[in-house]
From TrEMBL:
This is Anhydro-N-acetylmuramic acid kinase. Gene3D superfamilies: 3.30.420.40. GO terms for molecular function: ATP binding; phosphotransferase activity, alcohol group as acceptor. GO terms for biological process: amino sugar metabolic process; peptidoglycan turnover. It holds the Pfam family AnmK. InterPro entries: Anhydro_N_Ac-Mur_kinase, ATPase_NBD. SUPFAM superfamilies: Actin-like ATPase domain.
Length: 424
């Protein structure tokens, strides 16, 4: 392994909100020679980040698959629809790469490797909280052939196939890149679903306290659904949380939502639209309407639910006390009111007014680019044949003491040059 090798990478991600395709371009250098992923062994320099809008046709087809109560057109079977979307998502991802590279005057043959998460269509969890299967679409062969670049993808199935939750993967980035000496941190991502990595300060190392990661519950998914409904589909999200700020919480509804069985599961655990679904939102919407409450009050309640479920999960499961800082990444970082409520509940639960909630960009990485950078990093770990120990992150049960390798490869026209660059 050439430990001084710098790879120019692209990370691709689309979350459960399906709001856009994240494209992060970066240089990544492996500065150690360990064959097991280890903290402080990787340098990441972010070059560019863009959010590329989905074509409305493909986005609608993705949501058609999400809505299990909606049947495809009579002339199209479910299998046909999924097969078609798999290729169309791959094309959308490839076109996003091409357009962002062009915008930033980067030639495609300068890109060494692409890491693509794809679009999660289904993440199946049984009644005991075990993930039995997961499906991300966006064929990596389509991406590699349209861009000419080597692509690594299908990361989550590697973890699920060996007993892991397949999520949250942001914890890999957090535990390798973001450890701090003096602070216990919660690194919270708020996309459609929320996930957190609790990072003990490095001063806790003598106590052998390891990072803990899990999905906290809903992120933007319920709030976005409610905003779309109250605006007759004119709005996609609550800008800065200003709409929710003007409402009042429906206490009885909030209490019932917080009684969801998911919150009683112990980490590692994961969830998705399969639980916090359109049907879930509709049921609490109808209950709220029976109480005579306004749409704005319902949005306020959904926002409070997201904030409280995040803070409560820290209190219930954080392996360290006190918690010093919370850093927010993902689209939710733009919701000022949501962040205020997270900070309020953290301070209330932990009994201190010193917990600060900040944007992820204060750590040196963009609040929205993190997941793209994560999948670029995973592609680099794959091509360097570096194992990742996922046991403490996702509950992975692999018998191999060094962990597992994540992802599969679709070679681009640059594959021989890439392998030579990595191995020399």
């Amino acid at each position: 392994m050439n430990k001084n090798c710098i790879l120019k990478c692209i990370g691709l991600m689309s979350g459960t909100s399906v709001d856009a395709i994240d494209v992060a371009i970066c240089d990544i250098k492996v500065i150690g020679d360990s064959k097991v992923a280890t903290e402080n062994q990787y340098e990441i320099k972010e070059i560019a980040f863009e959010k590329v809008t989905w074509s409305e046709t493909v986005r609608n087809q993705i949501f058609q698959c999400f809505n299990t109560d909606v049947k495809p057109q009579s002339t199209t079977s479910v299998v046909q629809l999924i097969s078609h979307i798999n290729f169309m998502i791959g094309k959308e991802f490839a076109n996003a790469v091409i357009s962002v590279c062009k915008k930033h005057s980067i030639e495609l043959d300068q890109i060494d490797i692409i890491g693509s998460h794809g679009q999660t269509l289904w993440h199946n969890i049984d009644n005991n909280g075990k993930v039995t299967d997961t499906l991300q679409l966006g064929d990596i062969s389509v991406i590699s052939n349209l861009t000419g670049c080597t692509v690594i993808g299908d990361f989550r199935t590697s973890d699920v196939s060996t007993g892991g939750q397949g999520a949250p993967f942001a914890s890999i980035f957090d535990s390798l890149i973001l450890l701090q000496k003096n602070y216990n941190q919660a690194i919270q991502n708020i996309g459609g679903i929320g996930n957190v990595t609790i990072l003990p300060s490095t001063l806790q190392n003598d106590k052998m306290i390891k990072p803990l990661s899990f999905d906290t519950g809903p992120g933007n998914v319920l709030m976005d659904w409610m905003v779309c409904k109250l605006s007759d589909a004119k709005l996609d999200y609550d800008d800065k949380g200003n709409l929710a700020r003007s409402g009042k919480v429906i206490d009885s509804i909030l209490e019932e939502m917080m009684n969801s069985s998911y919150f009683n599961l112990t980490p590692p655990k994961s969830t998705g639209r399969e639980l916090f679904s359109k049907e879930y939102a509709e049921s609490f919407y109808e209950k709220s309407k029976l109480l005579g409450r306004s749409d704005i009050d319902i949005l306020c309640t959904f926002t409070e639910f997201t904030a409280l479920s995040i803070a409560q999960s820290y209190w219930d499961y954080s392996p360290v006390r006190p918690l010093h800082r919370v850093y927010i990444a993902g689209g939710g970082c733009k919701n000022d009111y949501l962040l205020e409520r997270i900070q309020y509940h953290c301070r209330r639960l932990f009994g201190t007014d010193t917990i600060e909630v900040w944007g992820h960009d204060t750590l040196g990485f963009g609040s929205e680019s993190k997941e793209g950078l994560l999948f670029a990093l995973l592609a680099v770990l794959h091509i360097h044949s570096i194992d990742i120990n996922m046991k403490d992150l996702t509950g992975n049960q692999s018998p191999h003491p060094t962990g597992i390798k994540l992802g599969k490869l679709s070679p681009g026209r640059n594959i021989l040059h890439l392998l030579s660059k990595v191995n020399n």
